[in-house]
Amino acid sequence: MTAEPILTISGLNVDYGTGPTGVHALRDVDLTLHRGEVLGLAGESGSGKSTLAYAVTRLLSPPGVITGGDVHYHRPGAGPVDILSLSPDALRAFRWQELSIVFQGAMNSLNPVHTVHSQLTDVLKAHRPAMRSAERTARAEELLTLVGISRDRLTAYPHQLSGGMRQRVMIAMALALEPEIVIMDEPTTALDVVMQRQILRQLVRLREQLSFSVVFITHDISLLIEFSDRIAIMYGGRIVEQAGASEIYRDPRHPYSEGLLHSFPALHGPRRELTGIPGTPPHLSAMPAGCAFHPRCGKAHDPCADQIPVLARPEAGQDREVACWLHTRPA
């Protein structure tokens, strides 16, 4: 990857609660998003994907707390911005203008008693107070057109829109101030397969048109294979593998990545048997010793039960990392 980084996450730790009853939701997460890139983040429910998104945007609700690490945004033509140190006023200005988020479940994210027009123009009122009312309405119409919705739906309420249209309104809202980074937290989970593909095609077109970077979070790795540049796999609050999308698809190195790939039917080529992953993800309050995946792993051996593998390159010169004792030597 030769593009410059736009977002760097180093050693990020998040806990829910404190003291003996607290749980470690994220552990030493290192991740880099490059300018213009679509970075997919995959893993089962409870792996820490959404917690990572809310930590980066500082939207964690109590009792969630960031206990360590750094998150830096690299503004074009300027020095890095320490997101975790921004004051409340600076953070308010930063969100939506530089970094925006599309939340999971558009019906719950949109206000049911306000029209699409009201909700799209609210963000413009807050961040562009000099804009006149007519200019805000024109921008709202432009945003709806951008995501493939007729501008006459500006007067509609959320319940008058289909699930796919509501999700597109959320994407339009996230793009209102032309941010450099858009984080999408499972935006297609509640939609049917046809609508998922329509929104993903639209997202790819918008990314090419507006040149923003994307972090796309989902449990469906087959979606990420189709349109991501790079994929990071999470398990038990850690990144266990990251590589180019085509490399993950052709040659997954972590047994968990391999299990995820064989849990979904192939869209092309010969039919194959779905194998899935035995067992269930560990509870964050009772994580197993060593590699968190070893109780479910068919390739586990001696060091897996005692030592936590480090995320590292399996071979020198490769642009991929994996945290697995199959590819690194225990200390």
From TrEMBL:
Gene3D superfamilies: P-loop containing nucleotide triphosphate hydrolases (3.40.50.300). GO terms for molecular function: ATP binding. CDD domains: ABC_NikE_OppD_transporters. PROSITE patterns: ABC_TRANSPORTER_1 (PS00211), ABC_TRANSPORTER_2 (PS50893). InterPro entries: AAA+_ATPase (IPR003593), ABC_Ni/Peptide_Import (IPR050388), ABC_transporter-like_ATP-bd (IPR003439), ABC_transporter-like_CS (IPR017871), Oligopep_ABC_C (IPR013563), P-loop_NTPase (IPR027417). Residues 9-261 form the ABC transporter domain. Keywords: ATP-binding, Cell membrane, Membrane, Nucleotide-binding, Transport. Belongs to the ABC transporter superfamily. This is Peptide/nickel transport system ATP-binding protein.
